[in-house]
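User: ok so my PI wants both of these folded by tonight, can you help

Assistant: No problem, let's get them done. Here's the first:
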Amino acid sequence: MSQVLVISGHPELDSSYTNKVILNQLSDNISDIEVRRLDTLYPDYKIDVEAEQQAMMKADVIVLQFPFYWYSMPALLKKWMDDVMSFNFAYGPEGDKLKGKDFILSFTVGGPEESYDPLGYNHFTIEEMLRPMQQTAYLAGMNYIKPIFTHRMVYIPGVYNKLEEVEARARDHATRVEAQIEDLIYSPENRIHKFVANWFAKFDRLEESTDQFTRSLADDVKWTVPEGEFIGHEGFRDWYALVRKVFKPNCDHVVEQVEVNKSEVGYLVELRIRLIAETFDDSVMKGEDINLLVNETWQVSFDSNDDIRIHSYEVVPVNS
């Protein structure tokens, strides 16, 4: 499994003075990485959707590397997104395949920074122009990471910029991408963020087995929920059995907010979760559709194997 997948969206990478430098440095310095060059894979623009989707599902971090063309991405990369980010893959009732993955936009900008301003000749900020891609990440359930971009990344011999300066900026850009990826993969806070996303993705399915949950619970975990207080793995199993009698599978836990702070015994995780679900007719909810907002507080730590363990878990409804 490649932890990092980089999609190169430059239509002619071999002619690039910057994107090529960035990709070469990332390939040299990140051990578990796959770089997919769309210009060599799909010069005819006929995207192998299954191959691209498989590559995305194997990755933890997905990076789109591209030059900023006409306030957006190159046509080849847009075609890739249109084809690959399909219904029931990236969105839709079964479209959870990218949920919880980290999504980074890394791109080069030709114009100067001051031009992307209400008073500049481009009138809008870069961040404003990225809204469609930000929403794409949100719709797919991915973690939209702050984009990394660098200005003045065009070299026109004798006209615009010096080659050595542009290449230096490209190397600095790659270093920033490396640092962001390292932080995403290794920092405790970001590992907890990813754990939260994966936890609720599993909960949505409401499968019969509890093993996928109990392996992340401390032996004496304390579970405080509206149904009561439950202790240990057996207590969790009792509560989970109650939940499966009420809620139909394929519910949707929307993680609206996550805050992670260090505590005396590990990390305190405070969450705002919206549960959207259907209930069984013969349950206590009598078939009512649920749209419930709750606050959750977790106490977690990392065990001797560096795996996350939940020690306490409290759920308090905000509305009903």
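One down. Here's the second:
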Amino acid sequence: MASLMLNGAHQNPNLISGIAPNGLNFHSKCLFQKGVLSHGNKLRVVRKNFTPKGSMSASSSSSSRPGSQPRFIQHKKEAFWFYRFLSIVYDHIINPGHWTEDMRDEALEPADLYNRNLRVVDVGGGTGFTTLGIVKHVDAKNVTILDQSPHQLAKAKQKEPLKECKIVEGDAEDLPFPTDYADRYVSAGSIEYWPDPQRGITEAYRVLRIGGLACVIGPVHPTFWLSRFFADVWMLFPKEEEYIEWFKKAGFKDVKLKRIGPKWYRGVRRHGLIMGCSVTGVKPLSGDSPLQLGPKVEDVKKPVNPFVFLYRFILGTIASTYFVLVPIYMWIKDKIVPRGMPI
């Protein structure tokens, strides 16, 4: 029964050319290149060394899914307490199923970190797992790890290669850095908790120097019905088109999207991925983003009803359990289904 529910229908592995989403200025044709979905005057969709399954069509709507969807952990206070407990086992339980070292290095490659003297901010850096990939190429003294969770940051402080990194508690939607501050902005596994992703990416634009590069690594939305249900109950799983739209609206140029995923998924994307893409963009002009936004969606200082908070937190945690089990399910299928056959 579980296999039947998770399998879903076989889906076309290719992105389909068609009418572009409104506001994205996509070209109507999709051309397969190697490894990157880039957006300038054309939409170029890329087939990686695996065959993507269940990926979103270029003709899919780019607008955000309705705010009425629960997303019980897409809220800073709920995410804070979620990681209060998850930080204890995060590196040992969560990362092996969703965010491996190979995936990390592949996702960071477009960030062009190959200069020891770059000034880098790692926003939502958590336990420092992604930062370990950054300091392979950049001196730790030039790297700042920012996160709202002191419990996650405490884990980062314990990692020897990160001892010289600056560690800051802060909000991804209101960064404590001056304008035109950094050469590189990296954020991995954080956007899904932002109440207003557009604001977070606009902040990424602000803190970068002219010519600086932002790299956001995050989830992708499922297409299989059961996975889609739990994704929308848990947190934000953006569509690929939404990432592109947020970057372009913030003012970034040369926006590119690279698909990533665990090797044992064999390119399957229908269940969504906690870490499913790496999106990059270049800041063309100094100063603030040309996009002007209103007040923040969430005021973390505002009192909340403790019973409502607990209810939302429990439901969000239950939904997250599904995505702990999915990579185990896919790993088992990878072991028992012969190579060359769809899983």
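Residues 68-336 form a domain with the Rossmann fold fold (CATH 3.40.50.150). The CA atoms of residues 127 and 158 lie 9 Å apart. Good luck tonight!
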